[in-house]
Amino acid sequence: MPRTFFVGGNWKMNGSIQTSKELVGNLNKAQLDPKTEVVIAPPALHLLLVKELVESAQVKVSAQNAYHKASGAFTGEISVSQLKDAQVPWVIIGHSERRTLFGEADSNVAEKTKAALAEDLGVILCVGETLEEREKNETVNVVVRQLDAVAAEVKDWTKIVVAYEPVWAIGTGKVATAEQAQEVHAAIRKWATDKLGSQVADDLRIIYGGSVAAKNCKELAGQPDIDGFLVGGASLKPEFVDIVNARL
Ligand code: PEP
Fold it and tell me: Which residues line ligand 1 (CB under 6 A)?
């Protein structure tokens, strides 16, 4: 079975009630490639509003983060169980901004992923190297270390989409070339083959994130191991639709 193309929009900590309504209104009016699975991740405060406003069954919502405990004295956090209860079907875990700005270690990412899957959520699992790590030729080692941490906790990868997001490309306008991205995606698929088996590896969606835009998405989408995108900045613009339609 070919892997379904997957495009996520990470709105990060942007927007208001009004702009969220406008963004969903634009998506509702757009012609989306019916073969693309679309998942948008508004700020937690706007999640349920956005979920209510989305008209197409093709578009689902995602949280940008979640805490692994079900409930308790964890001020400011939202649990995976609360997402499940609110019928939010996806969660982004391990985004580089969570790792670098909020100190999430590989072990935190692994326990959150495990907890989200236990609630039957889909997980967009982010991995990727810093510029310093790339310059030291450590890209694949870093990504494998991040994935191994999750594989130590998680056996079933069917509800995981891996987002390869080189940190140096996020929000910088500096997109990885199609060759650079394909090389790492192929390495991730090889890791999955070795660690999880060839069937799981064949089915695993590996999406690219980092300054994806209308102008560069088609070439990236043409690579054999690039199964979609996680889009930050451009998910707040009309060109998000062009990225969803990158394979048309
Ligand atoms: C992201 O935040 O996941 C991302 C890829 O951001 P941008 O597209 O803005 O680089």
Answer: 10, 165, 170-171, 209-212, 230-234
